[in-house]
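Whiteboard transcription, Tuesday session. T.W. wrote the structure tokens on the left side:
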């Protein structure tokens, strides 16, 4: 599939957020409120009691047939779940997971039913709602496409013609229909209607998928599959279009009114996409390839674990975008997350419209075994720190005020799960849900400086690699692997890329440059 140009930008998360299912309206300042039909008759009422926190998390790894399997989507779901429960105070019973490993499998009907029953039917005004999807994205024909689409260019919104008449989709497990011209994807149009039916404005949509092609590059797998089937762009199923008509009827919307709403852009709350419209969302390896996760989701959740001061989602996003570029660019890929908010001042709201209910941390206790062994989840540890996080690492046990009350010494770690024993303090201070913060890091005895040799070195690479073998504490690794330094020649091409905002200069701790001559 050739690279997608700006005409292929769709209003949907990873490829664009303008149709991610959020009405870009202040519902109470429009001549016709989006929810004025059957689903909108609750009206403007005050939230009763404490606001409820509801989340629907969807992850699809094991796609069937010829659809490439992914490796990090279930990790994404786990990352979000642990964060929402232990940092933002979600009740585990209010988080529904639809994934390969759950009783609720990620087929089209189950995803839609879960959105309706768990979010739409339960959320009241003032409640907090989070919808997260990790999986493949694609593009299919839109029977009533928008004439123009909104794109983000260097942080500025612009309109471009929708000449290809396409709409972005989330790809469920059961995409195939037996008809080479139809797929069971969930369209951006559908997500628009579902989100618009929510009775709360405190909505956060997170989409870690993309729509600009698929395949692999280096050690990264990308979350997109081609839109074409048999040489033609795929069409939605009749069931998908009927489902949209049913929701338009419930919301008392004509097709023209629905199109007018979509034309106004993105919607209530906040929507975050993992990549811009013409970019790829990385399903990336971490910890030397021991586990995979969405580069975007891992960095988002890790940042929020460690967030120690009050920041609006706009500030969080700026820092997150920088970190995501670092991970993706290290493999020669440009990935620029995108953010949309309605109203715009929602960018000043805290992430998920909630202040964290617990102190900043990097780990949480999952289990305390009868023999005193403590098992904990390390979702807040940075990927680089994680590789060095070995036996002997000390974690502070935190009380509700973030004060250290005990110490745990790590004995082993497998991926994001650590195992340790209490080193000091009372055993009663450590319970499932207790937060931990890294205090002293244990390093391996054979710790080495990892140096990558960039292809720009040309014929000098062999000589440099041979010389490095004489250095005990230096290890030369492939240029697309995690490293401390990258050695390369600052060619004219790299200088040009460095000046371009979309250019890819490998962002490592230090970029050691040799003169071109």
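and on the right, the sequence the group agreed on:
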């Amino acid at each position: 599939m050739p690279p997608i140009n700006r005409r292929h930008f769709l209003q949907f998360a990873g490829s664009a957020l303008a149709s991610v299912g959020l009405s870009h309206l202040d519902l109470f300042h429009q001549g016709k409120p989006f929810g004025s039909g059957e689903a909108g008759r609750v009206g403007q009422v005050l939230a009763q009691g404490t606001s409820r926190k509801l989340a629907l998390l969807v992850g699809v790894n094991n796609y069937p047939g010829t659809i490439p399997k992914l490796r990090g989507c279930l990790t994404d779901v786990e990352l979000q779940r642990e964060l929402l429960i232990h940092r933002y105070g979600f009740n585990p019973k209010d988080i529904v997971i639809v994934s390969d490993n759950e009783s609720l499998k990620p087929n089209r009907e189950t995803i839609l039913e879960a959105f309706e029953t768990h979010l739409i039917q339960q959320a009241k005004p003032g409640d907090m709602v989070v919808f997260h999807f990790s999986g493949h994205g694609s593009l299919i024909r839109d029977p009533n496409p928008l004439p123009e689409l909104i794109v983000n260019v260097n942080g500025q919104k612009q309109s471009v013609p929708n000449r290809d008449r396409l709409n972005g989709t989330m790809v469920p497990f059961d995409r195939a229909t037996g008809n080479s011209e139809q797929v069971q994807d969930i369209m951006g149009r559908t997500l628009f209607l579902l989100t618009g039916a929510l009775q709360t404005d405190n909505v956060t949509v997170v989409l870690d998928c993309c729509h600009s092609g698929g395949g692999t590059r280096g050690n990264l797998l990308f979350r997109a599959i081609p839109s074409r089937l048999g040489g033609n762009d795929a069409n939605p199923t009749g069931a998908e279009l009927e489902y949209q008509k049913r929701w338009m009827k419930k919301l008392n919307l004509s097709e023209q009114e629905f199109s007018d709403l979509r034309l106004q852009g993105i919607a209530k709350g906040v929507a975050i996409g993992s990549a811009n419209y013409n970019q790829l969302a990385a399903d990336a390896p971490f910890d030397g390839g021991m586990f995979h996760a969405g580069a975007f989701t891992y960095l988002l959740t890790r940042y929020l674990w460690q967030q120690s001061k009050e920041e609006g989602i706009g500030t969080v996003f700026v820092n997150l975008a920088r970190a995501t570029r670092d991970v993706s660019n290290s493999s020669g890929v440009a990935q620029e997350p995108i953010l949309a908010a309605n109203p715009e001042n929602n960018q000043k709201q805290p992430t998920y419209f909630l202040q964290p209910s617990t102190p900043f941390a990097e780990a949480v206790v999952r289990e305390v075994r009868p023999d005193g062994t403590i098992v904990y989840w390390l979702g807040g540890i940075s990927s680089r720190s994680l590789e060095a996080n070995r036996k002997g690492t000390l974690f502070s046990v935190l009380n509700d005020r973030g004060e250290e009350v005990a110490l745990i010494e790590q004995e082993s770690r497998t991926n994001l799960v650590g195992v340790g024993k209490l080193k000091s303090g009372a055993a009663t201070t450590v319970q499932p849900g207790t937060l931990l913060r890294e205090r002293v890091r244990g390093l391996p005895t054979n710790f080495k400086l990892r140096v990558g040799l960039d292809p720009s070195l040309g014929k000098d690479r062999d000589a440099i690699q041979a010389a490095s073998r004489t250095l005990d504490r230096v290890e030369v690794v492939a240029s697309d692997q995690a490293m401390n330094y990258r050695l390369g020649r600052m060619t004219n091409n790299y200088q040009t890329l460095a000046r371009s905002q979309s250019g890819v200069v490998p962002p490592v701790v230090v970029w050691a440059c040799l003169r071109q001559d």
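Someone added at the bottom: Residues 1-33, 35-49, 212-220, 500-517 have pLDDT under 50 and may be disordered.
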